[in-house]
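Input/output pair, single chain:
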Amino acid sequence: MRKITQKTAVFLLLLGAMLCRAQESPEIKRALVTARLQLIEGSKNYNPEAGLATYQQLAAQGNAEAMNGLGLLYSKGISVSLDEQQAINWLEKAGENGYAKAWYNLGLLYKEGVGVAQNYEKAISCFEKAAKGGYDRAWNTWGGMVMKGKGTAENFPLAISVFQQGADKGSSQCIYSLGYMHYKGFGYPQDYAQAIGLFEQAAQKNNAAAMYMLGLCYRNGYGVTIDTEKAKYWLNKSAVLGFKKSEIELSDPEAENAHPNQLKTVSKPIDEVITITETDAPDTFKKVKQAPIAQNISGNYTGTLLRYDFSGQNIISSTPLEINLQQDGKQLTGEWKEIAGDTAIFNARIQDDAIVFEDSRIDRTEHFYKDTINSYEFKDAKLQLLQTDESLFLAGNLQLYNIKEWENEKPMYLILEKKQDQTTVTQESEVLSKVVVYPNPFGSSFELSFDLTEETNVNASIYSMTGNQLYTTRWNNLEQGVQKMNISLNAPSGYYILRLNYGQQVKSSILIKQ
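Output:
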């Protein structure tokens, strides 16, 4: 259970008082105010025994606010011994006597496991009672648990309905939450324009989270033209209100969408791809339909994991991979290794419509978790196989689940390549071999060497991990024997793909530029 300080408990009491119904006489109101002040350690009125006595007396007389206060005191062990059952009894009694805030307080205790055993099912029931009982702040908490699937099955339509009821009552947090669902495409078609309209409404109500999201939209060009000044304006306004994420974003020199495809990203419907025909990384996200996997796909693969913004219009990260797959019937096991990243062991089962992972997770960093490691569950993949003369490709979508946030990660596209088994290639058929890049990592240039078994023409190309060609040259009529070439590459630090073509055959290598 989480430790709660006396200061926190008294804050809940004060908050409850500010939001309660005007049901007491002036004398009772004064008595409650005095009792709350007597519970504040360090206050000149500090007298916890007297404060407790006032709550007990008024609660016995049927005052629901005092019942709520007693429930909180028992839940924290302030002036009384910590007593879970007494805390529950008094908060329930306060709620049943019309004090909706008490249901909300009890829901928070169940949600956080404070003074009572953590129980999401009971928490969500309490938040629903609080919202329907007239405590408007509970609409957003209730809707958030439904949206995340805490204490109930994830239910986007119900979450939207709950948030909308709260928004209709003027809740800026519910208005923000509706924008959040449009922004990420949860329960709605993903739409930055709809999200921004709602964020603006909530921001006008001084909602710090909405201001933060507006700052992100302007910084990254999500639904609006990139405008760094407007981004700073909204992020600074949010930071002044104490929203820590805004402070972190302001301190980051690089935006999430550091290399946008356009200055203004407009959300568009993404059609499902029935048949993949290309092995290059797509500039925009492709939603792939799983094709039946009728052959054994065991082997060692290299490739790339592309991560897009929620609209799928921009690549925001590209991660080189090495993956070892072992297939036994419909069961897959493997090792997932991210170059300069984490390594994970995974298990999965091949189904007709997807590859579904079982109890497999990985720790990763990304823009919003640069200073911490965040854990993700492998959820499922939808892949298709492409066979060439030299390689077997697996390409399609991967879905990760953000454990901390209780929600699906951004759209991802996976490209994996397994070289044809070299035992099937005769010595005579392999014209080009022994490809060596030195040094690797390299600075501005590197030496490429390879062997030829006969005179031939060789094409060399270098691609970014997103598939953009950065360099190409052709060497004609190279003689048999060892070849040495010096290549300069004017490009940022990172990972690149070198491809050597001779006739119908291709050799690929990973380049690392410092």
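Confidence is low (pLDDT under 50) at residues 1-22, 422-428. The first helix runs from residue 6 to 19.
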